[in-house]
Each structure stands twice: as structure tokens, then as C-alpha cells.
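User: Here's a structure from my thesis project, written as C-alpha cells. My advisor, Dr. K., wants to see whether a designed sequence matches the one we expressed. Can you design one independently, without my sequence as a hint?
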């Protein structure tokens, strides 16, 4: 089996082992979908990516590389922390963009990535589904989160590939205190956000630099799983919250606090209305894999 260049990157953090890890195979050429999925499952990480040359359509759109994104059991058309982590690994390995920004080809099409010093930011892809959730879903989510229905102050579909249902609670403290019931929420991808108040944060680190706390719950092999830091969810939440006047056009969200992580997601909506989702990445492992 050939030796392929490999990175394991921690995303949405400047401190190694405090973000969301990602496995990146920098040369996925010649691998079948089954081989990619098998390796992804073996890593026991939330996602693994494989970099490939752009397709002819991607070349025409000036894509710099193509990425296939896998999570345990399935391939994803798009995901945020794999987008930033893959771009970080590609640049670190000597990748040179064709233009001012990096253009990534993936299952949802072309995704533009800006560089700002050590931070990368992707343009949030259009929502596939938006608008308020059905009331039956909201009541189910409230029961599954263990909160009163009136504690959900706003809700919306946040589907940008992953089928997120987003809910806003009263405060960041309430978000941090959640102990969701996986039996009730089985099969649902749930994103929860709460604004930060004046009360100190309950958690292992100071989140005073942030305006919101986010948590992400989704089905896993052993029931409900919590994701440390989630780019796709934060992208969709930002489009919803800013569009609805529930968040300013620039803010920083904390995620992963309950898991002893220090995820920081930088959100900005530019003058053209594009929402950019940014964060730092650090390489923790560099070498080769036999695939």
C-alpha cells in the first residue's frame, strides 16, 4: 500500500487539543469510497477528509482542490471544521491558491475560503432549508433537552447539508447546563445557542471574549453524540440569527466548553450579505498513512 501524506489538525482553536480534531489525507487519489469510509471509521474521529484534484467543473470554477468529507458511517456534502482544517493542511503542505482566496470543491459545490493571518474563514453555503420548525418538533426538542417550551425563545431549520434544527434558549448558562435525553432526540441533529449575559460562565475556561454559547447534538454509533466545535452549524446559526435580528453582524461564539474544549468561532457578515465563518487551526500530528 502506498504511503500518503497525512495531518491531524485541531480546528477552531489556537491551543492544540482544545478544538475539534480532523484527520486529513492529503492525497486521496485512487481510493474507493469504501476505502475512504473504512479509514474514517478507523480513526474514531468525527470527520476525516481526502484531498483530490478538482473535477473539470471545479477547474472551470477555479477550484484549488477537491475534498471528500466523511464522518462515521457516511459521506457529507459539506462540513465546516473539515473545510477549515483541510485548507489549513493544504496550505501548510505547500498549496498555492490560484487567486486571492482559496476555492474548495466539495459536495455542495465551490466554497470560498479567505485568509486573515493565522485564521481562515469560509463563506457559508446557502441554506437548503430554512424557516421555523414545526411546533411538534419544538415541543419534542424541549422535552429532549429537559427545558420548558417557553425557554425556547426562537427556532429555525438550519439545514446546509447537515440537517440541523436550531433552537435559541434564554442564556448561555442554560445552554451549558443541558443534559439532553438521547432517547427522545434520537435521529435528530440539534443545534442549541444561547446569548451570554453578565453572569459568569460555568465551565473549565473563561469565555468572556464571546457573545454566544453553542452546543451541537447528533446521532452517533452509541446514541446521542455531542460535537466539540461545529462549523456547519455555526454557519447556519449565523445566517438565521443575523437575518432575524437576533445577533449582530459580527460576533464570536464559544463551543465545546462542557467537553473541556476552547472552541472559538468568528462570525462576520460583509457588505454583500455573505456570512463568513472563521477560526484558527493547529497541526497536532504530521506523517504518512498506508492506504
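Assistant: Designed independently from the structure alone:
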Amino acid at each position: 500500500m502506498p504511503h500518503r501524506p497525512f495531518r491531524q489538525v485541531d480546528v477552531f482553536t489556537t491551543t492544540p487539543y482544545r478544538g475539534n480534531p480532523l484527520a486529513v489525507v492529503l492525497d486521496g487519489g485512487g481510493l474507493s469510497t469504501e476505502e475512504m469510509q473504512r479509514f474514517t471509521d478507523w480513526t474514531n474521529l468525527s470527520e476525516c477528509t481526502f484531498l483530490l484534484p478538482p473535477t473539470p467543473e471545479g477547474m472551470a470554477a477555479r477550484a484549488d482542490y477537491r475534498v471528500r468529507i466523511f464522518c462515521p458511517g457516511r459521506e457529507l456534502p459539506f462540513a465546516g471544521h473539515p473545510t477549515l482544517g483541510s485548507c489549513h493542511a493544504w496550505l501548510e503542505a505547500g498549496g498555492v491558491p490560484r487567486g486571492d482566496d482559496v476555492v474548495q470543491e466539495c459536495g455542495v459545490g465551490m466554497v470560498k475560503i479567505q485568509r486573515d493571518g493565522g485564521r481562515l474563514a469560509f463563506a457559508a453555503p446557502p441554506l437548503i432549508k430554512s424557516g421555523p420548525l414545526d411546533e411538534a418538533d419544538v415541543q419534542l426538542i424541549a422535552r429532549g433537552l429537559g427545558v420548558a417550551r417557553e425557554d425556547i425563545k426562537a427556532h429555525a431549520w438550519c439545514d446546509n447539508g447537515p440537517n440541523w434544527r436550531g433552537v435559541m434558549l434564554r442564556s448561555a448558562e442554560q445552554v451549558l447546563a443541558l443534559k439532553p435525553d438521547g432517547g427522545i432526540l434520537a435521529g435528530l441533529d440539534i443545534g442549541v445557542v444561547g446569548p451570554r449575559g453578565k453572569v459568569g460562565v460555568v465551565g473549565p475556561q473563561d469565555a468572556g471574549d464571546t457573545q454566544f454559547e453553542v452546543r451541537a447534538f447528533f446521532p452517533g454509533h452509541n446514541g446521542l453524540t455531542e460535537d466539540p466545535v461545529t462549523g456547519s452549524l455555526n454557519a447556519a446559526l449565523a445566517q438565521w440569527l443575523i437575518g432575524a435580528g437576533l445577533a449582530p453582524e459580527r460576533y464570536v461564539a464559544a463551543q465545546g466548553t462542557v467537553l473541556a474544549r476552547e472552541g472559538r468561532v468568528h462570525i462576520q457578515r460583509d457588505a454583500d450579505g455573505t456570512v463568513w465563518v472563521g477560526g484558527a487551526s493547529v497541526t497536532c500530528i504530521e506523517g504518512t498513512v498506508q492506504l
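When you compare it with your expressed construct, this may help: The two ends are 5 Å apart (CA to CA).
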